[in-house]
């Protein structure tokens, strides 16, 4: 579960008066959470698809992530879903390569 800080700088320009989480931030959250799960630093080679079904408004409501990944040559294929309860905000598929072990 992730809680977003509605006062963060990233929302000041996206969009004033009605902040939303930019798509690139959503992709980055999925990559970073997958890195933690795998204990590997990953580089995004390709975003195969990114579907933004509902806007994510940083309003203090928790986000949950469903992540699935499988090993492919020198990296992982990742599927990520961002949601809150039954409301799905986005679905992302990407291909990554391993840059290094995090040693955590």
The first-level CATH class is given as Alpha Beta
Label the CATH architecture. Roll
Q: What is the total tally of β strands?
A: 4
> Numbering strands along the chain, what is their spatial order in the largest sheet?
1-4-3-2
Order of helices and strands, N to C?
Answer: HEEEE
What count of helical segments does DSSP give? 1
Rg from alpha-carbon coordinates: 14 Å
- Overall domain count: 1
Low-pLDDT runs: none
Mean pLDDT reading? 92
Main sheet overview: 4 strands, antiparallel
Helical content band: 10-25%
Derived structural class: alpha+beta
- Strand percentage lies at over 45%
What is the name of the CATH topology?
A: Thiol Ester Dehydrase, Chain A
Shape assignment: elongated
Tell me the name of the CATH homologous superfamily: Hotdog Thioesterase
**Terminal Cα span:** 20 Å
């Amino acid at each position: 579960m992730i809680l977003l800080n509605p006062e963060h700088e990233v929302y000041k320009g996206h969009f004033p008066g009605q902040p939303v989480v930019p798509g690139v931030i959503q992709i980055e959250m999925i990559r970073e959470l997958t890195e933690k799960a795998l204990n590997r630093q990953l580089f995004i080679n390709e975003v195969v698809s990114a579907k933004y079904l509902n806007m994510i408004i940083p309003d203090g409501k928790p986000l949950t992530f469903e992540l699935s990944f499988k090993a492919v040559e020198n990296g992982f294929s990742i599927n990520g879903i961002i949601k809150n309860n039954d409301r799905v905000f986005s679905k992302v598929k990407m291909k990554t390569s391993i840059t290094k072990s995090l040693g955590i």
